[in-house]
Amino acid sequence: MITGRDKEASFTDLSHRGIEGVSLQGEVGVTRVAQTAENTRHDVSSSAKQMPNDAVLLLIDMQKGFDDVSQWGVRNNPDLERNNQQLLELWRATGRPVIFVRHDSRSAQSPLWPGQVGNEIKDEVRPLEHEPVVGKNVNSAFIGTSLEADLRARGLNTLVITGIRTDHCVSTAARMAGNLGFETFVISDATATFDTRGPDGILYKADEVSALNLASLHYEFATVIDTATALRMASAQHQISSAAAAAGKR
Predict the structure, then answer these.
(1) What pLDDT, on a 0 to 100 scale, did the predictor assign at position 46?
(2) Are strands 183-192 and 223-225 parallel, antiparallel or unpaired?
(3) What is the CATH number of domain 51-245?
(4) For the chain, which residues make up each domain, given as ranges?
(5) What is the pTM of this model?
(6) Residues 162-187, mean pLDDT to the nearest whole number
(7) How far lies 247's CA from each of 29, 44, 131, 174, 250, in Å?
(8) What is the Cα–Cα distance from 155 to 182, expressed in whole angstroms?
(9) So what's the pLDDT on residue 47?
(10) What angle do CA 207, 213, 219 make, to 5 degrees?
(11) How far is CA 158 from CA 17, 59, 155, in A?
(12) Which of 5, 85, 171, 249 holds its CA 20 to 30 A away from the CA of 219?
């Protein structure tokens, strides 16, 4: 039991790779989560999945306002922007659909309030003129927006989800997408979150928050993979499709 006024989660050096791209560290509870995810991997292994050519890259809340440390605290995953940029470049190069989600806060005190710099999408992944941007003001990208209807109308059934925060809007979108019947991937190292203090005063580091949330999503709501795996899957499928199209023209 952890006690004391300024409680802080204590974690050992024990590490277990429960899902692709996520190192789960912690005491017995965290280790059990990792083991559970590992035990179910044979059912949802990325090797058994395909990344269709119409898989949608759904970038959630990649906004400048999340750089405000005074508002959000310490963020994990310094590779967030680079990994999203790599995914975006491949999706554009292979003609796959891209959709951005932007959080339009209802609070004028928020860095994400519309009409200010913080509401803008980060320069590293700035949308092109023809790429849709879905504005939302709750955690879910599906509530109060046309996202689901737009996806259905276009016949798009696979979502590849990235963005901020792993435990809030990314998790909510993945859970709803899975329940709505979409084939859903979450890219572990293309998401990020912040240190979080629980109601009991324990401080959970951003990496720990992220790892547990990704473990919870994996298998039940989505297939969690890392950026390298997503790039490899998408590239392989594109090559197969291109070869088949070329063969058909002969």
Answers:
(1) 55
(2) parallel
(3) 3.40.50.850
(4) 51-245
(5) 0.82
(6) 98
(7) 53, 31, 31, 37, 5
(8) 11
(9) 55
(10) 130
(11) 25, 14, 10
(12) 85
Which residues partner with 183 through β-bridges?
A: 158
Q: Extract the tokens encoding 236.
A: 């392989």
State the Cα–Cα distance between residues 63 and 126, nearest whole angstrom: 10
| Residue that the structure tokens 């190069």 belong to | 93
The conformation of residue 170, written as its DSSP 8-state character, comes to I
Whose structure tokens read 């005074």?
70
Length of the chain: 250
- pLDDT above 70 covers a percentage of the chain that reads 78
Distance of CA 122 to the CA centre of its chain: 16
Residue 235 has pLDDT above 90, yes or no: yes
Give the separation between CA 103 and CA 119, rounded to whole angstroms. Answer: 7
Q: Which residue type occupies 39?
A: N
Per-residue pLDDT band at 50 (split at 50, 70, 90): confident
Q: Using an 8 Å Cβ cutoff, are 150 and 143 in contact?
A: no
Residue 127 has a pLDDT of 98
pLDDT confidence of residue 239: 78
Range 139-154 burial, b when 16+ CB lie within 10 A, else e: bbbbeebebeeebeee
Res 249: pLDDT: 65
